[in-house]
Design goal:
- It is globular, with a radius of gyration of 23 Å.
- By secondary structure, it is an alpha+beta fold.
- It folds into 4 domains: 70 residues, no CATH class; 150 residues, Glycosidases (TIM Barrel), CATH 3.20.20.80; 92 residues, Immunoglobulin-like (Sandwich), CATH 2.60.40; 68 residues, Immunoglobulin-like, CATH 2.60.40.
- The protein starts with 7 loop residues before the first strand and ends in a 5-residue tail after the last strand.
- Helix 7 runs parallel beside helix 8.
């Protein structure tokens, strides 16, 4: 059994609304005595009464008066104390996702990026003819900015991935953008341990089908972010954080100290190895092990940044346990070979096996079976030149139906 409640929180953003958004200031200016009464009532309810009830009834589960908060101490949304909600990425002023790397709180309890759910989910709310960014039904299922949130999504997609070709491409790129951006933030938070000791993205699931910050949609279908979260929140992994021409590499370990190896390969997109380095390392127990900071010029050594990637891997018992691939330009500017992915579906025991074989670097491979009720073992995959990956697929469908429904999308195909 897993605990479902790890903390009781009195409220969401009531304290920061009073202290930081002007609500308290405005009421104090209009009626100081009434403002003092309101604030005292707030302290009595959320600071005292609910805390007492949780202490008596919750069997040791901790209580926090509000989020974000310093538990009623001065500023509510502070990076140096308590928990932090951060919306300058996605919200106004809509900073690029690299801004996540410059925000290092003690506990990041809310941040997020939107994405649309899969086309199979959108099919439940809109006909294919209605599946346009500006159609009334699509706007009705986009509640951010009073229905104008798709313009914010396009802003973030176009910054890094270019303009979508059609609505299906818009859905795919929104999920890639969301997964990449949240991974960058979460890995930065983990790499900032012990100063930062928590990272909680907004949000897990949905109350209805539409565009949202969730990683699982209304019908339970995983977005790309949910597959990515399993990797970036893995107990042992590698954080590769590139910003302003420099890449910070840290090994993350939530368990006991362990011996491993780390490996760097600089490749061109067709598979030529330009540089290789491998070294033994002992990962700190419950901590962060620094590998180093690498300037682009050092890694590239004159190679074409549009056709080159750096691959950082963690090896345990001789096998790759974690990997991150970093490019030197935005995805829209990378020169990625087309039609370099071979996919083969076959039966294997009680499930199906999807074998992916790549002849070049293939980025952000998304495996889609439409509305079929199947579970894919892993998704949103980067494949290196010459790599073969076997993915288990499970569900109550026959092999022919599965083959007919399968569709692969990659950034190479754009």
């Amino acid at each position: 059994h897993h605990p479902s409640i790890v903390l009781w929180c009195g409220n969401n953003e009531e304290e920061t609304a009073w202290k930081d958004w002007g609500h308290g200031r405005d009421l104090k200016a209009a009626d100081p005595a009434f403002a003092a009464k309101v604030w005292q009532g707030y302290v009595d309810l959320f600071g005292n009464d609910l805390r007492q009830v949780v202490g008596e009834e919750a069997l040791g589960v901790p209580y926090w008066s509000s989020s974000p908060s310093n538990d009623l101490d001065e500023k509510a949304n502070d990076s140096t104390r308590g928990d932090k909600h951060y919306w300058q990425v996605w919200g106004n002023p809509a900073l690029p996702v690299q801004a996540y790397l410059r925000e290092t709180p003690r506990f990041m309890s809310e941040y997020g990026l939107q994405a649309w759910p899969s086309v199979a989910t959108v099919d439940q709310i809109a006909t294919r003819a209605e599946q346009r960014i500006d159609s009334p039904v699509i706007r009705a299922h986009q509640k951010f900015m009073a229905g104008e949130g798709n313009s914010r999504l396009l802003h973030y997609i176009e910054l890094r991935y270019g303009t979508p070709k059609d609505f299906e491409d818009f859905v795919y790129l929104s999920q890639v953008m969301q997964a990449d951006g949240i991974a960058l933030a979460a890995l930065h938070h983990r790499a900032s341990r012990p100063y930062t000791m928590g990272s909680l993205y907004w949000q897990l699931n949905d109350v209805w089908p539409g565009a949202s910050w969730s990683s699982v949609d209304y019908f339970g279908r995983w977005k790309a972010l949910h597959f990515a979260a399993r990797r970036f929140f893995a107990p042992v992994t590698v954080a590769v954080l590139r910003d302003e021409g420099s890449t910070r590499v840290r090994l993350l370990n939530d368990g006991a100290a362990l011996d491993a190896r780390w490996r760097l390969q600089v490749l061109d997109v067709d598979g030529k190895v330009l540089r290789r380095r491998e070294q033994a390392v002992t990962l700190k127990a419950e901590g962060v092990t620094s590998i180093g900071d690498f300037r682009d010029a050092e890694l590239l050594a004159g190679a074409d940044p549009k056709r080159t990637v750096a691959v950082f891997e963690l090896l345990q018992d001789g096998k790759v346990s974690a990997r991150q691939v970093v490019g030197f330009v935005e995805a829209k500017d990378q020169v990625l070979p087309r039609q370099k992915l071979k996919a083969t579906l076959s039966t294997e025991g009680d499930h199906y096996r999807l074998r992916l074989e790549s002849a070049a670097y293939v980025r952000a491979t998304w495996i889609d079976f439409g509305a079929l009720d199947v579970q894919v073992e892993d998704n949103l995959l980067d494949l290196l030149p010459g790599e073969t990956r076997d993915i288990a697929v499970r569900g109550p469908v026959d092999l022919t139906t599965l083959r007919e429904a399968m569709k692969l999308k990659t950034l190479n195909d754009r």
